[in-house]
Design brief:
heterodimer; A: 472 residues; 6-stranded parallel β-sheet; 51% helix; B: 208 residues; Rossmann fold; 4-stranded parallel β-sheet
């Protein structure tokens, strides 16, 4: 992972992304593929609004009884012969996973897609300890070979063109014929299928995430389209599920509702190709599946959000719809954020997980158009939460000096009507003079960025207060 | 305090904050035949569905599926009594294999239930119905009884739980394996089967 991947570099990284010509076609496809797919799927469903409301209520209920549901999930999982581990932070989570792998003597490890594993930087840690896990989700596999982080919650390599993928495969799969054609997407998919199947067959342990945990049944529910998650669970001796504590809901009935929301919001599918309900290791009489089963429940900053104005962000089911509909994400992509979670959900979550000091740029990267909240399957008020983080940024003195100065000036005038009237009168006349009869202003000192792409209509010379006074 | 106790006390909800559990979601079942709905949705997910006249037709239909695709006439069968009872000798030229299928092989499986809302096959794993067989082969040929089709996942879960405990793995399969990871463009056959053929038999199957 490159050293420039840092949330504090968001502004610089955004400029770099805006000037990256290879990113444009990928970002352009978000609207025509994912966003359009969601719109059509929601319309096919019928009353999608009622479904969203049900999803919100299910997640709120679960979050308000998180302690009970987690304790129940632990009991039911143990009753199925599984082990449950608790990790307060990233370091504890990494150590737990390593200890399980060491105890099992696991040397080769396959991995399904897991954003929590990105969040805790599991792969570099395991590699430093002599275990190189192989990512098996196609997109994750591609970015792993390129030593890049994923750029989208559900489409980790969406920023790449197929030619870049072909180049990556040629460089990495050196045992294959260098003269092979790798032009079509289908050829790339077939090559990854062949290379990774051998890894599945020989893995000692598999690590996956979970989309949902059902407390009553002690079940982890995994949603994939490729089937890689299932081969990761079923073929090795040991299966480790790594997931956040907020993923638990009451039972599989609640999962069934959230599933309808998740896949429609994510890819526009009525359901994904595979949904797997996994409880414990293989049971007596079963001749397939793992012999050892572990669930690692990761907090890593989540519990601190409970009781704050940002707590609704914990309802998130990681569909990525807010990314696909965000004008900011659509302009700069995922890598610019320099964090595991990007787009509106990153802007609402990162200051909580990473600290306001690290991620204070993210909640500012918003036009407050509100599309993210409109499409969120569990109705997270994302702009409201971003405003909360902006207020926290201001309170902790992290806001830029110019913004602090401008806001203090505004606050002074807004609280003193006489000062506001005088200021507005002066400004209106100055701006009119500056326009010089042209009706618009093309530039003002200190505002080059704002004027780079637009003009300001010139005021008439009188303030609203003056005009109103005269009409009365 | 242990990590467990720390986390559980940190998430304990503040007094008075208890969001009620919503009433269970009611899916409105549209009018029309469940089988027809299942076929339409499975087809939309790129599965190929054929309705047979009876279970006796399964061997011939399977052989035809292989022939139409120019695949070797080899079919991998799990030790499923429902499949064992079929008269395979009526299909000369078809070889039955017992080993776990490889990524280019064809394998047969029997779905316990079908979900019409999404065209989904529902497979609880058992000693005779291994879960990995839904992901290993290149072509999965699934058998589904018309009587086993319900409308929603909730209904099917209730039927399964009525039959006893949940097995360690339950797989829901809708269409073949796919990926959109390269240029957000759909390609079939990522890691699991490249094709899914579903043979629906009228009535029920003899499960015991």
């Amino acid at each position: 992972m490159s050293a420039t991947f840092d949330p504090r570099r968001f502004v610089e990284a955004s400029h770099e992304a805006l000037n990256d010509p290879q990113l444009r076609p990928a970002l352009g496809r978000l609207k025509t593929h994912f966003a359009r797919g969601r719109t059509l799927a929601a319309a096919r469903f019928g009353d999608f609004e009622a479904l969203r409301e049900q999803g919100r209520a299910i997640r709120d209920h679960a979050l308000s009884r998180l302690d009970e549901l987690l304790a129940l999930f632990e009991r039911t999982t143990q009753a199925r012969g599984g082990h449950v581990h608790w990790a307060r932070d990233a370091a504890e989570a990494r150590a737990i996973v390593l200890a399980i792998l060491r105890e099992q003597g696991a040397r080769s490890v396959t991995k399904g897609k897991s954003m929590v594993s990105e969040e805790i930087a599991l792969n570099p840690f395991l590699e430093a300890n002599g275990i190189r896990p192989v990512e098996t989700d196609l997109g994750e596999y591609i970015v792993q070979l390129r030593d890049e982080p994923p750029s989208h919650i559900i489409a980790p390599a969406f920023h790449l063109a197929k030619e870049q993928v072909a180049e990556t495969f040629r460089r990495s799969h050196t045992a294959l014929d260098p003269a092979r054609p790798l032009v079509e997407r289908a050829a790339l998919v077939a090559e990854a299928r062949g290379v990774l199947r051998a890894r599945f067959e020989t893995a000692d342990a598999g690590i996956t995430g979970a989309n949902f945990l059902a407390a009553a049944e002690g079940a982890c529910v995994l949603v994939t389209n490729e089937g890689n998650g299932d081969l990761t669970r079923l073929l090795p001796r040991t299966h480790i599920v790594l997931t956040g504590i907020e993923k638990v809901v009451a039972d599989l009935g609640d999962v069934a509702v959230l599933l309808r929301l998740l896949t429609r919001s994510a890819t526009g599918q009525d359901i994904s190709s595979y949904v797997s309900i996994m409880s414990g290791p293989r049971a007596a009489g079963e001749n397939d599946g793992p012999q050892h089963f572990h669930v690692v429940l990761v907090d890593n900053g989540r519990s601190q959000l409970i009781g704050t104005e940002a707590e609704d962000v914990l309802r998130c089911i990681r569909c990525g719809a807010c990314l696909n509909h965000c004008p900011i994400y659509g302009a700069v992509g995922g890598h610019a954020y320099g964090a595991t979670y990007s787009g509106p959900i990153g802007a609402a979550l990162n200051p909580g997980l990473l600290g306001v000091g690290m991620a204070h740029h993210h909640p500012n990267a918003s036009t407050f158009c509100g599309r993210c909240a409109e499409v969120c399957p569990v109705k997270i008020p994302l702009p409201k939460i971003m405003r909360y983080w902006r207020a926290r940024e201001y309170a902790s003195g992290l806001a830029p000096k110019s913004a602090v100065f401008g806001l203090s000036l505004w606050a002074f005038a807004a609280k003193r009507p006489w000062a506001y009237r005088i200021g507005a009168r002066i400004a209106a006349r100055l701006l009119r003079w500056r326009a010089g009869g042209r009706g618009h202003i093309g530039a003002l000192p200190l505002m080059r960025g704002w004027f780079a792409v637009r003009d300001l209509p010139a005021p008439e010379g009188r303030t609203f207060h003056d005009l109103w006074q005269r009409r009365r | 305090m242990s990590a467990r106790d720390n986390i559980l006390s940190a998430v304990r909800s503040p007094l008075g904050r208890n969001a009620p559990r919503p009433a269970p979601w009611q899916t409105i079942r549209p009018p029309g035949d469940l089988v027809a709905r299942f076929v339409a949705h499975a087809g939309a997910a790129a599965a190929q569905v054929k309705i047979l006249e009876g279970a006796d037709d399964i061997p011939l239909a399977a052989a035809e599926i292989l022939r139409l695709r120019n695949l070797p006439a080899i079919l991998h069968l799990p030790p499923d009594p429902i499949l064992e009872r079929l008269t395979w000798s009526s299909t000369p030229g078809l070889t039955l294999a017992r080993a776990a299928p490889g990524p280019e092989d064809a394998a047969m499986s029997v779905a316990r239930f079908g979900i019409a809302e999404t065209g989904t096959l529902f497979y609880p794993a058992s000693s005779v119905r291994p879960a990995s067989w839904h992901f290993r082969p290149g072509l999965e040929v699934a058998i589904l009884a018309a009587d086993s089709i319900d409308f929603t996942l909730e209904q099917v879960l209730a039927r399964l739980q009525g039959e006893g405990a949940l097995p360690s793995t339950v797989n829901l399969v809708t269409g073949p394996s796919r990926t959109g990871d390269i240029e957000q463009t759909l390609e079939l056959g990522a890691h699991g089967p490249k094709e899914l053929a579903i043979l629906i038999v009228p009535g029920g199957l003899q499960w015991a």
